[in-house]
């Protein structure tokens, strides 16, 4: 079964989307210690195609360097094990240094990457999302994970590459 990983810095809304996608389905909590501790695995399907989804997280706040290192590690794991990657950013916060760091890692590999601008709750935020072109990953999907708005178009495109 194909695997999709959701990566991005803390607080962008990864778990909110993950929970929406696996609604009423079983989430398998990985028991491996360390950075992988809070990787949550779930199953979902769209347009008749079933796939596994990984919610990455488990960041421990320390110095900025430690934080950055943990995010990089999650991205490296995702690049290794996933067939497609959802890279989530947050329009409320705008482009951050951590987003740029993740984008740099993702640009150096060949897995399909879906840049997803989350928290697009209104038309003004839709306009603000253009700043994410600066990440150099091309076009993006705008969603509001909290309401599910925009997620249909994202999933349509996602299952095409699985
Ligand atoms: P994670 O750290 O990336 O897993 O982020 P979470 O899923 O835990 O969400 C972080 C915060 O963003 C929570 O307070 C969510 O309720 C909020 N959030 C998630 N999606 C949206 C959205 O579409 N719109 C808004 N306004 N807030 C959201
Ligand atoms: Mg989370």
Separate helix tally: 5
Principal-axis shape equals globular
CATH homologous superfamily annotation? P-loop containing nucleotide triphosphate hydrolases
Low-confidence stretches: 30-35
What portion of residues belong to β-strands?
Answer: 15-25%
Average pLDDT over all residues:
89
Question: What is the percent of helical residues?
Answer: 25-40%
Overall domain count: 1
Query: What structural category characterises the helix and strand content?
Result: alpha/beta
- Ions, cofactors, ligands: which are bound? guanosine-5'-diphosphate, magnesium ion
Class, according to the CATH hierarchy?
A: Alpha Beta
From the coordinates shown, what is the CATH architecture?
3-Layer(aba) Sandwich
Order of helices and strands: EHEEEHEHEHEH
Structure description:
This protein is an alpha/beta fold. The protein has one domain: P-loop containing nucleotide triphosphate hydrolases (Rossmann fold, 3-Layer(aba) Sandwich), CATH 3.40.50.300. It is built from five helices and seven strands. The protein has a seven-stranded mixed sheet, sandwiched between helices. The protein is globular and about 40 Å long. Magnesium ion (MG) binds next to α1.
Summarize this structure briefly.
The chain is α/β, with parallel strands linked by helices and 162 residues long. The chain is built from five helices and seven strands, in the order E-H-E-E-E-H-E-H-E-H-E-H.
Overview features:
about 35% helix; alpha/beta; Rossmann fold; binds magnesium ion; seven-stranded mixed β-sheet; binds guanosine-5'-diphosphate; about 160 residues
């Amino acid at each position: 079964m194909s695997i999709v990983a959701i990566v991005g810095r803390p607080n962008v809304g990864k778990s909110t989307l993950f929970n929406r996608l696996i609604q009423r389905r079983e989430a398998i909590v990985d028991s491996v210690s360390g950075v992988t501790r809070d990787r949550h695995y779930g199953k979902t399907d769209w347009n008749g195609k079933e796939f596994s989804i990984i919610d990455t997280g488990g960041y421990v706040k320390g110095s900025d360097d430690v934080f950055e290192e943990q995010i990089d590690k999650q991205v490296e794991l995702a690049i290794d094990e996933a067939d497609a990657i959802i890279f989530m950013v947050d329009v409320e916060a705008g482009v951050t240094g951590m987003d740029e760091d993740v984008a740099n890692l993702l640009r150096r590999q060949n897995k399909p990457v879906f840049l997803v601008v989350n928290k697009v709750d209104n038309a003004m935020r839709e306009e603000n999302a253009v700043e994410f072109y600066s990440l150099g990953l091309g076009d993006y999907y705008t969603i509001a994970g909290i309401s599910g708005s925009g997620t249909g178009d994202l999933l349509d495109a996602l299952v095409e590459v699985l």
